[in-house]
Specification:
The chain contains 11 helices and 6 strands. The protein is α+β, with helices and mostly antiparallel strands. It has a 4-stranded antiparallel β-sheet with strand order 2-1-3-6, covered by helices on one side. Strands 4-5 form a two-stranded antiparallel sheet. The model is unreliable at 171-183 (pLDDT under 50).
Length: 231
């Protein structure tokens, strides 16, 4: 069921959602329906029950065109520009290949998943060669004391262990690595969705201005060009 537009904020949000939901599949089209005061999708009749077709004959509508792909691409580039360099470089690589939209989102999800993994899980997920597998098998047969004894240590490592042994639990916690970079990665997917939503809201505002659309006296009005729908 479509939402009746009851404010200018609702109008902007509905237009933005339509722009973001556009797909080339099934020849679907999005419209602002001035007669019904709602935004909705026109589904190809081949994929829809005739009783569910929308808009209705004689409805006054304005078609909402999809955002050009080159503009959406620039939005992804702009988001990548705002990220720390290691993450930005991975996002740029995703954009440089085929299917950049899907690759970009996948790259963000990989970074997010990696940030949520423990060090043991990261190690488990890392590809291993024959030598690494043999080392793990030997390691599994050793006692904890043998493992510790076999681990190579340099002067710096020995000093760290000595200092670590002398620290309180509060000092251990204080010494644990922290920082904005780690938090940024954990929030990366949310940041992208927030950035994307804001970007589409700005595009919706532009569409409203370009098409002479506004919300006044409790309803959506248009001073620009419209069309009357008929089959």
């Amino acid at each position: 069921m479509m939402m009746k537009i009851d404010s200018r904020e609702c109008l902007v949000r509905e237009i933005a959602d339509a722009m973001q939901s556009h797909t080339n599949e099934f020849d679907n089209r999005w419209f602002l329906n001035l007669t019904e005061q709602e935004v909705g999708i026109r589904v190809d009749p081949d994929y829809c029950d005739p009783d569910c077709l929308w808009p209705n004959d004689d409805d006054e509508v304005i078609e909402i065109d999809p955002v050009p792909s080159h503009e959406a691409f620039k939005a992804m580039e702009a988001f990548a520009d705002e990220q720390p360099k290691p993450i930005a470089e991975k996002l740029y690589r995703a954009l440089s290949g085929s299917r950049p939209f899907a690759r970009f989102k996948a790259a963000i999800e990989r970074e997010q998943n990696h940030a949520c993994m423990s060090s043991a899980e990261r190690e488990q997920a890392r590809p291993k060669g024959k030598a690494a597998i043999e080392r793990e098998q030997n390691h599994a047969c050793m006692s904890s004391a043998e493992r510790e004894q076999a681990r190579p240590k340099g002067k710096a490592a020995i000093e760290r262990e000595q200092n670590h042994a002398c620290m309180s639990s509060a000092e251990h916690e204080q010494a644990r690595p922290k920082g904005k970079a780690a938090a940024d990665v954990l929030d990366l997917l949310k940041d992208w969705y927030d950035y994307q939503n804001k970007w589409y809201m700005e595009k919706a505002e532009e569409w409203i201005q370009e098409n002479g659309v506004d919300f006044k006296d409790g309803k959506v009005i248009c001073t620009g060009s419209t069309m009357t729908w008929f089959e």
